[in-house]
């Protein structure tokens, strides 16, 4: 199995270089580039084609949330894990809506960071221990928008089935197993869902689905 290709983005040189050095020493991970701000990150991602970007939020020129939105929009296969000091709800939600696949606080242990990278690379989502309960609560009922009788009429029946399971937080592998279809079928359905819902990534698709009442049974 190929190593997971990682780009590290942080405006503080000591943090950026320290994290890159740490990740490079881990089996199965390869740091293919670093960037000092969001604008630089967009160019580095285009040049290196990583699997996962570890992204800071508060940076000059272009912040991490907007950079994440642009990266995931231009490179749908690239996953972004936020690593930041900021844990307020608006920032966490903004990162998720931008397409982030994970959100960790700086100070997280090396195991937590590498597990988040591996989870993101495999199509999952992960949040640090201090955030997990709040995110779960949000998905479990933080939104109260009334659902329509026929939500998402543009979706096919297969895409709607996948979206219902996606809204519960299941991974692509779990969805494939539950629907008795191939992983490729699920990936194609997820791509169709993103396009039709105009979702930047998995988190935004889940939020949109839960606003319509999916995943609450």
CATH class of the largest domain: Alpha Beta
Classify the helix fraction into a percent range: 40-55%
Strand content: 5-15%
Name the strands of the widest sheet in spatial order.
Answer: 2-1-3-4-5-6
> How many independent structural domains?
2
What sort of overall outline do the alpha carbons produce when their principal axes are compared? Answer: globular
Query: Any idea of the CATH topology of the largest domain?
Result: Rossmann fold
Ranges with pLDDT <50 over ≥5 residues?
Answer: 143-148
Number of strands: 6
The CATH architecture of the largest domain can be given as: 3-Layer(aba) Sandwich
Query: SS-based structural class?
Result: alpha/beta
| Average pLDDT, all residues | 86
The major pleated sheet works out as: 6 strands, parallel
Helix segment count?
10
Order of helices and strands: EHEHEHEHEHEHHHHH
Q: Assign the CATH superfamily of the largest domain.
A: Response regulator
Any idea what the radius of gyration is? 17 Å
Q: Which structural traits does this protein have?
A:
10 helices; 2 domains; alpha/beta; 6-stranded parallel sheet; Rossmann fold; 217 residues; single chain; Arc Repressor Mutant, subunit A
Helices and strands, with pairings:
Elements: E1 4-9, H1 13-24, E2 29-35, H2 38-48, E3 52-55, H3 64-74, E4 79-84, H4 89-98, E5 102-105, H5 110-121, E6 126-127, H6 129-141, H7 157-166, H8 172-179, H9 183-197, H10 202-211
Parallel strand pairs: 1-2, 1-3, 3-4, 4-5, 5-6
């Amino acid at each position: 199995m190929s190593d997971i290709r990682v780009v590290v983005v942080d405006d503080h040189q000591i943090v950026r270089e320290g994290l890159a050095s740490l990740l490079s020493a881990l089996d199965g991970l390869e740091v293919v580039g670093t960037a000092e701000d969001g604008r630089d990150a967009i160019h580095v991602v285009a040049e290196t084609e990583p699997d996962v970007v570890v992204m800071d939020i508060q940076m000059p020129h272009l912040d991490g949330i907007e950079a994440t939105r642009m990266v995931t929009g231009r490179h749908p296969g690239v996953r972004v894990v936020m690593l930041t000091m900021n844990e307020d709800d608006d920032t966490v939600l903004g990162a998720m809506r931008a397409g982030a696949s994970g959100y960790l606080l700086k100070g997280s242990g090396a195991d937590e960071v590498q597990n988040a990278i591996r989870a993101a690379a495999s199509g999952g989502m992960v949040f640090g221990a201090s955030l997990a309960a709040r995110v779960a609560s949000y998905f479990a009922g933080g939104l109260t928008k009334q659902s329509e009788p026929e939500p998402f009429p543009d979706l096919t029946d297969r895409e709607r089935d996948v979206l219902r399971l996606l809204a519960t937080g299941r991974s692509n592998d779990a969805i494939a197993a539950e629907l008795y279809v191939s992983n490729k079928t699920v990936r194609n359905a997820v791509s169709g869902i993103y396009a039709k819902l105009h979702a930047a990534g998995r988190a935004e698709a889940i939020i949109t689905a839960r606003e319509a009442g999916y995943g609450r049974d």
